[in-house]
């Protein structure tokens, strides 16, 4: 398949993607930002909204809305496909397209793991802020339940279990049990300590503010320790990134020397064998190096 055919396929796919309304968000955005409030009031297909709907300016604005919304929906793993198309055009082979399609689920898995880790880190910081805010509310004279509710609203430290904890606090339920259930969410493990402090304060009459202060100090120290360890391992992650970029650097050096490495790798038996073996070794090396670093981080 020639380079022109690859380019035509890519342009046709992009045009179809931009032309078709893929969900109601495009239509809502068109009504609000293109046809204006009058179009929203009279309907896109009726009344004054239909006047001039096919003018060049309106079509341009609608196309721009579709591009913006489509870019927001586009996930990072799908960037593998444009890169694969470029390599397929340069190498005049379909193998990069197959490799790009195979790489999408692996990249998606890695990106989702990173998103979950960042979300858990944010929730852990919210728990620390929740303990400090609740202790401050208690010292200002608030009762435990209003103090917990006010701190939860201010910090969002209860994660996805906020509705359960708020319902238990407002309607006389078991707050400590609700906190323990909320602590099962990644990043909210500190809520188990808050549940223990709540139980001790309710059953034994101990001061809840003092327990929250100690819990906040412990959680903050643990978080600072993780951040320090992450900073120390930043160099190791940089090494892993350099390891991943070495094949690209090798291809660039080959082009700089006047060779055609893609044609050798994609159109000769020896090159295909080297590509398969090198890809497997590269993947194994990245996995092993990442495993070592993650083991050092305790994750």
Compile the SSE list and pairings.
Layout: H1 3-19, H2 24-42, H3 56-73, H4 80-91, H5 95-139, H6 144-155, H7 162-170, H8 175-182, H9 191-204, H10 208-232, H11 234-256, H12 261-267, H13 269-297
Helix pairs in contact: 1-4, 2-3, 4-5, 5-6, 5-10, 6-7, 7-8, 8-9, 9-10, 11-13, 12-13
What does this structure look like?
- By secondary structure, the chain is mostly helical.
- The chain has a domain at 73-226.
- 80% of the residues lie in helices and 0% in strands.
- It is built from 13 helices and no strands.
- The protein has helices at residues 3-19, 24-42, 56-73, 80-91, 95-139, 144-155, 162-170, 175-182, 191-204, 208-232, 234-256, 261-267, 269-297.
- Helix 2 (24-42) packs antiparallel against helix 3 (56-73), helix 5 (95-139) packs antiparallel against helix 6 (144-155) and helix 7 (162-170) packs antiparallel against helix 8 (175-182).
- The longest helix has 45 residues, at 95-139.
- The chain is elongated and about 80 Å long.
- The two termini are 46 Å apart.
- The model is unreliable at 14-53 (pLDDT under 50).
Distance between the termini: 46 Å
Structural class call reads mainly alpha
- The number of helical segments is 13
Element-level helix/strand string: HHHHHHHHHHHHH
The proportion of residues in beta strands is under 5%
Number of strands: 0
Detail the poorly predicted runs: 14-53
Mean of all residue-level pLDDT scores? 76
> Which term fits the overall shape?
elongated
